[in-house]
Write a structure and sequence with these properties.
By secondary structure, the chain is of the alpha+beta class. The chain has 2 domains: about 1-150, BirA Bifunctional Protein, domain 2 (2-Layer Sandwich); about 160-245, no CATH class. The protein is about 45% helix and about 15% strand. The protein has a 5-stranded antiparallel beta sheet. Strand 7 and strand 8 form a beta hairpin. Residues about 280-300 have low confidence and may be disordered.
């Protein structure tokens, strides 16, 4: 059920559109006795002339039940729904001047209500935030009668969207935690990084621009097939940030633009230098045999033999 309402100047065109026997039938009226649309309009104008300050002296409303609900209602039930709707808007259904007309020319039946905004004392019915009030009034009427409420449908959609957003946030957090664990292992090359992420059921799919240059990755969680941009997971997983962290393509299987190519080459050269320095250190290191004689130990064997010979000679 949907409720719409607005204050307006009113006029013959509006009355003629609403009150049309070819479109439907009169449902309800109060304090009106005219038969035609022009008679009803002039009858309301008599009361409206009591207030010379206001411009919008008519309230136009539409109460629209859901298609499935509208088809099953009797005239009496629709009259009761209309009264309930007006009461929810704090309209005096006993003393106010209004007419309700049911349009049935379409499958989606709906009720038009024309209410005189001016009462018999010349006072105006307040229309502040009247549109929002009509939405909630229709929602409350629908709830009381066990009907489908457009407001509730909208609320349910918002809740569902929030649940999806929450799940999406949890998935992003999980993927980023896996990224951090892989980076802690210091993979060095992009190939190694991609392989380690895949072991954790996270596949990074390359995306290229029109020139065929690699511009980034899409991340797919292989467990639930959720897919998003790497930068949507976290900015640190963006392509440039991965290169800025020191990773590089070792095999050169991807076509990179000039900026990314320069960054990739710098990373490659830096790591290549680190590897060569590590190899030099390994080559300079001499593995020692713990059983080999130390060059710093003095051998006294020869001196001991000389002393023994001297003793023998003296004897």
């Amino acid at each position: 059920m949907i409720g719409k309402i607005k204050s307006c100047i009113g006029g013959f065109s509006l009355f003629n559109y609403v009150i049309d026997d070819e479109k439907g039938m009169e449902l309800l009226r109060n304090n009106l006795c005219g038969e035609t649309s022009i008679e009803l309009m002039r009858e309301m104008q008599i009361i409206q002339n009591l207030n010379q300050k206001a411009t919008n002296k008519l309230i136009s409303m539409v109460l629209s039940p859901h298609v499935d609900d509208g088809e099953k209602f009797s005239k009496k039930q629709l009259q009761n729904l209309t009264k309930e709707f007006l009461k929810e808007l704090e309209i005096d259904v006993e003393n106010s001047q209004f007419i309700a007309f049911l349009h049935t020319e379409k499958r989606h039946r709906h009720i038009h209500i024309l209410l005189n905004r001016v009462d018999e004392n010349g006072k105006l019915f307040q229309d502040h935030h009247i549109g929002k009030k009509a939405q909630w009034a229709a929602h409350r009427v629908a709830e009381k009668n066990g009907l489908i409420s457009a407001k509730q449908i909208r609320i349910d959609k918002i809740k569902a969207a929030e649940d999806i957003k929450s799940d999406f946030k949890n998935i992003r957090r999980e993927i980023y935690q896996k990224h951090l664990r892989v980076m802690e292992s210091k993979p060095m090359t992009m190939e190694k990084y991609l392989a380690e992420m895949l072991k954790k059921n996270i596949k990074l799919i390359p995306t290229s621009n029109k020139q065929g240059e690699l511009q980034g990755f899409r991340v797919r969680n292989m467990e639930n097939q959720t897919e998003m941009k790497a930068s949507e997971v976290h900015r640190n997983m963006g392509f440039k940030n991965l290169l800025d962290s020191g990773l590089f393509f070792k095999n050169g299987n991807y076509n990179l633009n000039n900026t990314m190519q320069k960054l990739n080459e710098d990373n490659f050269q830096k790591n290549e230098k680190d590897w060569s320095n590590a190899e030099k250190k390994n080559n300079n290191f001499v593995s020692q045999n713990i059983f080999a004689p130390s060059p710093y130990i003095v051998d006294h064997t020869a001196d001991e033999l000389k002393r023994k010979r001297k003793k023998i000679f003296k004897r």
